[in-house]
Design goal:
- There is one protein chain.
- By secondary structure, this protein is mainly alpha-helical.
- It is about 70% helix and about 5% strand.
- It has a two-stranded antiparallel sheet with strand order 1-2.
- Helix 2 packs antiparallel against helix 3 and helix 3 runs parallel beside helix 5.
- It is elongated and about 45 Å long.
Amino acid sequence: MSQLIEERTEQRMRRWRDDWPVAVVAAAAAAVVWVLATQVASVDLAVRSGSGTQHVNVVSVIVTAVVVAMAGAGLLRFLERRTARPLTTWTAIASIVWALSLVGPLGARSAAAGLWLAALHVVVGAVVVVGLRRRTTPA
């Protein structure tokens, strides 16, 4: 009986604050890619938006990375409480969403902008998927 109590104590439920480091790293990585694209490579990160153009700024990149990371973490925590194989299920869903996100850069105003926007998606997706998996995998 005491062994069961010890196991449950060791496998405490994770909370949203446990996932903040992944969100911070995703935001920092996105900001680095944005700086490389706009400041070093001098690419205007702009996408078609309706009949106009929307410029991608560093604030939107950081906020989006944090929102994506925390939404992914929220889904993972939900699945941990509801499914038998949460990490496997979450990884499949996250990978599909990540792949679908690569459609977004197709709306870029130039090929260079499209490549840099795709790089942003790849970097943030990699940090979120790998980071949340590592923070969740039992030791």
